[in-house]
Amino acid sequence: MHSIPRLARLALLFATCALLACCGGSRPGPDVLVVTIDTLRPDALGVVDSRRETPTIDALAQDGFLFPAAVSPVPLTLPSHASMLSGRWPVHHGVRDNGQSVPQEINLLQERMQQAGYRTGAFVSGFPLQAMFGLDRGFDHYDDEMNDGEQGWVERRAQDTVQAAMTWWAGMDAVPTFTWVHFYDPHDPYEPPREFWQPGEHGAYYGEVAYTDYWLGKLLEAARQRSAGRSMLVVLTADHGEALGEHRELTHGYFVYDATMRVPLVFSWPGHIQPSRSAAPVQLVDLAPTVLDLLGMEPLPAADGQSIAEGLKGGELVVHPARMETWLPWTYYGWSPLGAWLDDTWKFIDAPVPELYKLETDPHETSNEATSHPAIVDRLGIALAQSAHSQSRVASTTMDETAMQRLRSLGYVGVGAPVEAPSGDLPDPKAQVAMRDRLQQGEVLLRAQRFDEARKVFDEVLKLDPDSRFANLRMGICLLRLGQNSEAVNVLEHAVEVEPRRAEARYAFGDALMRNGRFAEAAVQWAALAELQPRRKEAWFNLGAALEKDGQPDQAGSAMQEFQRLSDSEKSADSPPKSVQ
Known about the structure:
Elements: E1 2-3, H1 9-22, E2 31-37, H2 55-63, E3 65-71, H3 77-86, H4 90-93, H5 109-115, E4 119-123, E5 141-143, H6 158-170, E6 177-183, H7 203-226, E7 232-237, H8 258-261, E8 262-268, E9 276-277, H9 287-294, H10 309-312, E10 322-326, H11 328-333, E11 338-343, E12 346-350, E13 355-358, H12 374-386, H13 401-409, H14 433-447, H15 451-464, H16 469-481, H17 485-498, H18 503-515, H19 519-532, H20 537-549, H21 553-573
Parallel strand pairs: 2-6, 2-7, 3-9, 4-5, 4-6
Antiparallel strand pairs: 1-5, 3-8, 7-8, 10-11, 11-12, 12-13
Helix pairs in contact: 6-7, 13-21, 14-15, 14-16, 15-16, 16-17, 16-18, 17-18, 18-19, 19-20, 20-21
């Protein structure tokens, strides 16, 4: 958990005056609550599909303005949330995958709210949103404490997240709050409490949604009690959907079909937003511009999104074309990334074999009409290319100058080379579905700790594709778990060669080298990890340990100082928030 330094609180108090002025003279400004539910399909809601049980979200949607078919820019947690909070497509904020760092120069919604005098708090529930990835900037209090699962898959259940938010609110005074609450429960694996189990093939997934809806009700009840005497703007949405087998995709991230790219979006502000419903494909990048416009604040610079506030108030609802992408096929497997452009009723998917769908008559995207309408393919393809109106971005390894100085002092500079955009003749993800399915079978076995069986799967894949990024990394992890450390070094060395920017490959390779007593080589890997993820404490701790074992105590001490600095920062953030006096 992370809190703003005490010396900054006075500045927030003065900024509150500006907020009150823009929101109606002496009247207190509205509280703002943004709720994001990970991996939420629109048809998981009762207000969209009457077979579902989500009474809290249904009531919020009926009292507000519901968009049951909003468009996510990317089916991955961190990049999508970066888009929501910046108003920019991933091509412009640069975060193309989980595990990257949000560039410091990207302006975020919470920073603007903080500058306006709001007390800002965030409560996130999944590993991809931990503070070390950079979305904590602009929050007085960023609570990312998670205690379920293992490293890389840790999460926090909805009940605990709600309790954390309520505890923070209990310490607040009358200053308006901007609160972001993120629920991770519907993300796989689907393990709802027994009382929320649902029948049917995907009952576990819908049970997770029902469980989240229940605790959302508790959250809204507490928020309304705290906001008594002033109004509250609530925004509810999801980062992406879940395929549940459509297009042979079980979860999300691999394709850009609507099963994972369409999400619900609700704006509720009684007295200010007219209750309604629209199937218009508004976008998640519209979220930040709309919130700022509703509050009478200046927009964020260089935003791709547009405010839909006028439409929410009963005026004209203007919708602009949507850009979508996923780099997961590239970053995980070395296959072609995918881009998409939605204009009116046509959706174009830029893949090695292009795809074109008329969603009006083919909502499930089953009939590719690209060969029948080459002119439309050309028009939408040009629009997609031109939508990168400024230079395309890929998040750099680190923007943390303290970390860079520390790495320079240790002699490690540029170890984790910057991410490069994919290029060349790459395989089409559609043609690799069978290979992906086999790799996912191995992943399931690995997570179930059935290491011998998982190893056989990855060995089978590596015989067909020795450079498989996914198989090399997961095979190396299997070997480590089986205690075959020497064999693991060879496999993980190749994993780093084929994908030097993969943080988990650096971690696993460093681990294998340490187990084999190759401490100087291990230090190189821990330094690379520290450059890729500068706020990841274990990278600095392991770097110090490797240097110490290699007989370099002075350098080890420097690395441990950075570890201690990060640890102290977390400890200071654990103190109870103090009210502005």
